[in-house]
Amino acid sequence: MSRLSRKFKVMGLALMVVSAFSAFAAAAQAAPQFTVGGSKVTTTVPLRTTTVPGDFVLRVPSLPLEVTCTELHIESGAINSPTDVSATSLVFTNCVVSSNPTKCQVTNVGGTVGTIVTGALTGTLATVGTGTDLLLSPAATNFVELEVTAKAGQSCPVSGKYKIAGTAAVKMTTGTNATTVSGESSEAIQKAYDVTAGAVKLTVGAKEAFLSLSTSFALESDGNWGVDA
After folding, report:
1. Do residues 215 and 166 lie in contact, with contact meaning Cβ atoms separated by under 8 Å?
2. Which phi and psi (to 5°) does residue 24 adopt?
3. Are 129 and 161 spatial neighbours (Cβ–Cβ below 8 Å)?
4. Roughly how many angstroms between the first and final C-alpha of the chain, as a whole number?
C-alpha cells in the first residue's frame, strides 16, 4: 500500500469515528426532557391538570365495555426529574358506562358512583418515531379496579370488577415554553408500540383496553414549562 493510500485510509477511519461520535451526541441531545422556565428540571416541581372540554374514554372491545368521564385532575402530581413524573392518583369524574348507560353505572371499588380514583402512578418520557410520549404505569400492580353495577331496577350485562393494569402512552406537545402543555392518548398511539417499541398496552385481565383522552397540564405555580425533544 502506498503512503498516499495509507493516508486516505487513516483519514477515512477518522471521519467514521467523527461521524459516529456526532450521531451519538445528536442522539443524546435528542433525549426528551422536562424544562421549567426554559431550563432542565433540577428539583421537584408540583404539577396539575387544567380543564379541557372533551371526554376521557376507556374501552375494552372484547367485553364489550366502554366507560366515559368528562373531567380529570391529578392528585399530588409532580415532575421529579428531567424525565419522570408521579401522582398519588388520577381522579376522573362524571363517569358513565357509555356502552350501556341506562342499565349500568361505574366507580372504583369502594368508591362513589360516577367517580373513578386510580392508585398512585409514575410516568417516564420516551421517544417513539418522531414523537415524545409520557409512559404512565401504576406504582403497584394495577392502575385501578373498576366496579360496574346495575342501576336500580335494571340488570347490567357487564356487572363485575375489572382490574386495569399495564402502561398508557400519552403523546406530549414538545418545543413549547408556556403555562400549559397538552397531552393526548388514543388507540392509534397505543397500537404504534406494537410495531415500534414492543408491548405498551393497558389490560383488563388478558383483554386489551384502550384509553382516549386529550388534556392539558400546568405547574401549580402557573409558571412556564415544556417538554424538549
Report:
1. no
2. -65, -45
3. no
4. 47
Alpha helices by DSSP H, listed for the chain, are 3-30, 187-196
Which amino acid is located at 12 in the chain? G
Positive or negative torsion for Cα 152, 157, 161, 167? negative
User: What is the spatial distance between Cα 34 and Cα 2, in angstroms, rounded to a whole number?
Assistant: 54
Place of cell 368508591: 111
Q: Which of 123, 200, 98, 209 is nearest to 164 (CA)?
A: 209
The rounded distance, in Å, linking the Cα atoms of 169 and 136 is 6
* Chain segment 109-159, per-residue pLDDT in tens: 999 999 999 999 999 998 876 689 999 999 999 999 999 999 999 999 999
Phi-psi label, residue 161: left if phi above 0, alpha if psi -120 to 50, beta otherwise: beta
Q: Taking residues 18-30, report their average pLDDT.
A: 41
The pLDDT tens digits for 158-190 are 999 999 999 999 999 998 899 999 999 998 888
- Model confidence, pTM: 0.83
Question: What pLDDT sits at residue 155?
Answer: 98
Could you tell me if residue 75 is left (phi over 0), alpha (psi between -120 and 50 degrees) or otherwise beta? beta
